[in-house]
Amino acid sequence: MLRLDWNALQAGDRVLVHHADGGAARLVAGIVVSVEQSGGSNDVGVRLASRESPAGLVHPGRLTVHHDPIELDSHCWRCTTSDPPKAGLRRA
Predict the structure, then answer these.
(1) pLDDT band at residue 90 under the 50/70/90 scheme
(2) Dihedral over Cα of 37, 17, 70, 75: its sign
(3) What whole-number percentage of the chain has pLDDT above 90?
């Protein structure tokens, strides 16, 4: 995610996070729950929702996060090397 988009995130925004769960990084739906402003990139807390693992709070790097709904593009090397997200991951 571009820094401008990252710093514009607010509590309640829906995002998709490339989250390493069991070794493979996959897209997991989440909701922004906290944003702490910083001099560069903000510190963003995201509550993940996954059927395979209990919901947890993570502080991902901005380059591992997409807006939900996702707009796949060639700028994310994680998306170009893996399968696109399933429709069921779009909503927490």
Answers:
(1) very low
(2) positive
(3) 34
**Over the range 16-46, which residues count as b (16 or more CB within 10 Å of their CB) and which as e?**
bbbbeeeeeebbbbbbbeebeeeeeebebbb
Token output for 59: 């502080």
Q: Has domain 3-82 been given CATH number 3.30.750? A: no
Domain ranges of the chain: 3-82
Separation between Cα atoms, residue 64 and residue 61, nearest integer Å: 6
Rg of the chain over all Cα atoms, to the nearest angstrom: 12
Confidence tier at 47 by pLDDT (50, 70, 90): very high
The yes-or-no verdict on residue 88 having pLDDT over 50 is no
Rounded to whole angstroms, the Cα distance separating 14 from 23 reads 24
Q: Token pair of 17, please?
A: 């996070």
